[in-house]
Input
Amino acid sequence: MIDASALRRLTVFSQSLVPVREPAEVVGLLAGALRAAWDGAPVATALHDPSRAILVPVAPPGAEPAEGLPPLQAAMVGPIETGTATGTWLAAPLIVNGEAAGAVAVLVRGRAVSADDRGIFEAHLGAASVALAQLRQEVAHEDARRAWERMVDAVPYALCLIDSAGRARRANRAFASLVNASPTAIAGRPWLALVPPAWGEGLAETLASPGSGREVQLRAGTRTFAVSAYPIGPVPGDAVLVFEDQTDRRRLQDQLIQSEKMSAIGQLIAGVAHDLNNPLASVIGFADFLLEGRDVPANLVEPIRVIQQEAERAASIVRNLLSFARKQDHARRSTDLEPLLEATVTLLRTQMVSRRVDVILDVDADLPAIDADVGQVQQVFVNLINNASHAIESAGRSGRVVIRARRWRDGVAVEVSDDGPGMEPEVAAQVFEPFYTTKPEGQGTGLGLSISQGIVKEHGGRILLSTAPGQGALFTVELPRSSRVDPAPRPVAEPASTPPLRILVIDDEPHILHYMRATLEAWGHGVQVAGDGQEGLALAVTGEFDLILSDLRMPRLTGREFFLALQERNPEAARRVVFSTGDAVHGDTTAFLEAQAHPFLNKPFSLAELRALLARVVASQEA
Output
């Protein structure tokens, strides 16, 4: 029977293992306890290294040289007793969770090994094994905790665990970064003290019904978050807040909405242009007709000329709108910048006036042409001029935008400067970044300058910015000269009068029919008119005409439907069809006109263009 002193020593040894956190320290305490139990007897210990599949000796402090020590590797299999000249070695494995984690041996000197010796030895090994198992469990728990923290920190969502008392218990690094706090400083603090005050109401709403699927939208500066709450654990009121950063998604949605708006605006422009081009065609046509007449009183010539010029000015504005809205073919061609810049300024003049911004265009003479996709390059200058006017408008005063085009090396540099408030250096450094904008929410996508920079780079140039607070901003677009050698355009001679032609005019606008009949008959041609495609088809099928001039957008039968029907019923007449339209912005309209390879007139057209068309008809007949 084990005596009381041995039991006390065993109890002290067991208690000494409680604070230990290293396996080698456990084995060291075991060796000391075994030496004390057997009056300073030699002890040998070793721990198994599973990574190398070997036993690693652990030399306890004050250990004596061990003579006749049995192989501890053999003791890993089970207890052994080995006799020597000085005594008997007791050896046994350290069993942890059913596996040998090491081996221990103690020398019993001067007597035979008793049952009490074996009991005390086994009791010490059992206590050490329990301590080692506890250490393994703690290590596994700590590894699992760290792995869980790494996993939670790796997810792109900000997570915060809230208890029923409204305190934050734990959070991942994404949440700590979101609220600008250290992860270790979050636990125990009220969640309301961690988040921006503006978030309080929204978070309280989602925490009131965790797991309901309710999602609130919160903003922090330029960032947007969708926040949901989910119940966690058995305690009512415990929940985890999940913050999803939806900034990029929202920006893409805004971009898509903006794109849809631009598409809708393009469709609106097409319809408005058609509706404007028809009356403009009548005004310009009648003005041309009157000015050609010889019986116009002298005092009416100038007023009629003003009517003609103002109508042509309105037609030019409509053409610029159509050009800007039209889907471009992205083909580059040799382009003169001066007419492109003039068209851009004309396009924006009305809104510049409404913003009290004067626009000054200064173009040097004899600038070299550039290779350009006209629509894309015009978009660049529209963005720059619009941004300049917005900057002036934000200052709450009138101002001026100066556009100056000059030679640059072997190309062209276009400067767009304003006298607005200018920019701070940190703002100027970001203006070309996608989605960066200084405009109020809903007034800009932050894409204009980044897209413009991309367009200019694709054209082999660059955009530079010079600005300072209170000194306005200067954007410089540098573009290389054209590498194409385009033949100089031949001067177009005024078409001579043509022999009488039989002409059918089909249009749903009575005023256009009136002025076309009056003009063509005054030129000596025979004219018949039709107010829609159905009436025009009946005349075209049975009549013999040298030219059939048909509008594209008409009731009953459109110009396209009229043409296809005429092709079936009288192919020869269909070859003499020429189209007129004020709606060339639609992609399907343009595709149809190009597919048929028939000449067409863009409304409003001048009498000179009409004469040129008649001359082409006569030339084709003679050929």
In short: The CA atoms of residues 193 and 200 lie 9 Å apart. The domain at 4-150 is CATH 3.30.450.40 (Beta-Lactamase).
